[in-house]
């Protein structure tokens, strides 16, 4: 058998699923396979489209191991293949100049600060960032304006 598509509706709202930890309610959004059927009648691909009462839509997928390489997908090749991309986010942070380890930095207390910006203030920052820019140049986004201003404030604080 090929693919099966199911449509469903639920009275649940997206907020009812919280942080999407596995629960029976969340499991109901994913199509289930009837394993009492003969193996040659099992679908290879199941799709369940569920409309929630808040208007959100859930797309649940179930894929048969027959169409995926389940045994060897996580095994390295022979010879092992090198990563295609450098994922710097997984590398340890660089050491400070003149330091041989980061033990002293790890001992320092971390400061947490929260910055609350009103919509009006964000628009003002965006307008200030874009003031004097040529109209043919793409304007700075709200994110870029906030990030740039925060970076500038942090740099000025250190001087």
TrEMBL record:
GO terms of molecular function: acyltransferase activity, transferring groups other than amino-acyl groups
Source superkingdom: Eukaryota
Family according to the record: Belongs to the plant acyltransferase family.
Protein name in UniProt: Uncharacterized protein
Species of origin: Nyssa sinensis
């Amino acid at each position: 058998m090929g693919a099966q598509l199911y449509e469903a509706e639920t009275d649940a709202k997206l907020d009812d699923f919280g942080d999407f930890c596995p629960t029976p309610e969340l499991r109901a959004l994913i199509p289930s396979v009837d394993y009492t059927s003969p193996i040659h009648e099992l679908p290879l691909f199941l799709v369940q489209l569920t409309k929630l009462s808040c208007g959100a839509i859930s797309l649940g997928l179930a894929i048969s191991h027959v169409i995926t390489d389940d045994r060897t997908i996580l095994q390295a090749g022979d010879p092992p293949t090198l990563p295609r991309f450098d994922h710097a986010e997984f590398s340890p942070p660089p050491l400070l100049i003149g330091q041989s380890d980061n033990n002293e930095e790890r001992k320092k207390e971390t400061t947490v600060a929260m910055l609350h910006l009103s919509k009006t203030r964000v628009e003002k920052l965006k307008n200030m960032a874009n003031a004097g820019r040529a109209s043919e140049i793409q304007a700075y986004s709200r994110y870029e304006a906030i990030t740039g201003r925060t970076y500038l404030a942090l740099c000025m604080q250190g001087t």
